[in-house]
Amino acid sequence: MLRYLLTAPVVLAGAQSLLAQPSRVSAPITDVRYEITADSAAVGKRQLGVSMSFHVNGTAPVVLAIPAWSPGHYVLIWFARRMSQLTPEQNGAPLAWKKLDFQTWEITPRSAGTVKVSFKYLADAVDRAVAWTAPNFAFFNGTNVFLYPVGRGFNWPAQVTVRTEPSWRIATGMDPAPGTNNFQASNYHDLTDHPFYVGRFGFDSTQIAGKWFRLAFYPAASLTPARRDRTFGWLRKIFTSHIAVFGEAPFRNYTVFQRSDTVVNGGGLEHQASQVDEVLTSQLDAGYLPGLYSHEGFHAWNVKRLRPADMVPYRYDDAQPTTWLWVSEGVTDYYGELGTIRGGITDSLAFFNGIGGFVAANAGAQGIAVSDASLSPWISPTDGSGGLYYPKGALIGFLLDIMIRDGSDNRSSLDHVMRTLYNNTYKRGRGFSSAEWWGEVGRAAGGKSFMEFARRYVDGREPLPVDSVMRLAGMQSRSDTLREPRLGISTASDSSGLTVTGVSPGGAASAAGIRVADRIVSLGDVAITGDDSFDTFRQKYNATALTTLPVVIVRGGQTITLQLPVRLLSRVVTVVTSIPGASEKAVRIRNGIMKGTTQ
Ligand SMILES: [Zn+2]
Known about the structure:
Helix content: 25-40%
Number of strands: 30
Shape: globular
Low-confidence stretches: 5-16
Largest sheet: 8 strands, mixed
Mean pLDDT: 93
Bound molecules: zinc ion
Strand content: 25-35%
């Protein structure tokens, strides 16, 4: 996953872990079929109609549950809270049932035969992991709607039928099944890892490396032919680079699902053969999009297939913590940068800036072990470790890449580690262990031990040896701390100016009474006409002695002046440059990283 806005994930207060609950086992069920109704009547009510049918051999209770989270989105969302009108029946007559906990139901069949369970699903969540609808459109994720029998494992096949308007289209990476709008999966993990778009949306496709790459985008007008061509051009370069790391494209086809709107939960969520991205309409031409596609695309290998053993297989009923998110997310972030520079979308300056961003984020969060930070997204920690596994993991990936290339005289690289672990663990049906990760890193570096590195810098809290390692690649960094006023808002711009799309609780804008949908006219003496105006504002008031500034907004056609508390926050800016006159070996290592080559 990658998120860009300051919006906090939804975590329900008081939600209790289920780990302490006794395990229950469902009677066996077979011939599992799901039906999703996403026609104009359903989406007009912001709902999906869901039904599940299956065969039972007798009257033993069937125990069904719905997931609490969606892999890649490491927070408990409790999809059951969006379900209503649960109705189990057999031959048209209702069956007895009871709720065992907030996401598990026990149903008692009257006889052997077919049981059908139906419910409504509220589909109005602006969240890449949760269903959302518009009058002509529906998005849903399998984890939202597909009930599973408890205690029966996940290796059972299922079929999905989508009921929709005849003129509406369906996009999913799930394998088609015979009949109209039918799809199938051989196990529950695959069943829940192929999101759906249903309705009126734009669709285009192209071939890259012998596979079909599809672009499904809503609204249909959001991607002009020029934007589509540009996106396919980026995907071609990015995926060619990623495929070169692993030696294969492990999906039948790949879909980029992209929704743009004035209110989004910005960023992306990865799946085994797709990514679901949400982009502000004002940022459809923003420079970060290739990096987003690259990060989410690399996940098709790293985490969707090559995964720490703690997360194999996935469980869906509760949190599944691992100390290895720094590899699953952080190293993916590093390859997000590599995919764009190796593909030729960005240049070395952009790559250096990307590394500088990792160094700066890390400098601002010293004294936190990245393996500890990896454990914690489930509780949205407030100690500064939240999401640290992204930049610190990326920086560690970069440093390991340099050390491997230095130790092997640039004959090996982090690419070799990723590929070897992919072949030796994922392809053998399991996750990787700590011993396997550090063993492969050491082997690739010419037989060097990394136990000390792991102990001090990954599981430990010592500052990373950034300068000494970067020097081996002929690179250096310099960090400066800026103090500047921050507002705590996100905005979207259009021809009429800048509109507030999000307000961080506790921020200066929140304290001033600024609300979503306000249009900002001026901050102090600075007229706000576009995103650049905020740079002017930050520079002008970075050393002000004022405690408040007037902020002029337009709300509901009325011009209002509010008082904004001035809050100066520190921001570390890091500039990465090449070292003039670096050794021939260091230059070879630096070029090898950016080109994806070894000797
Ligand atoms: Zn990610």
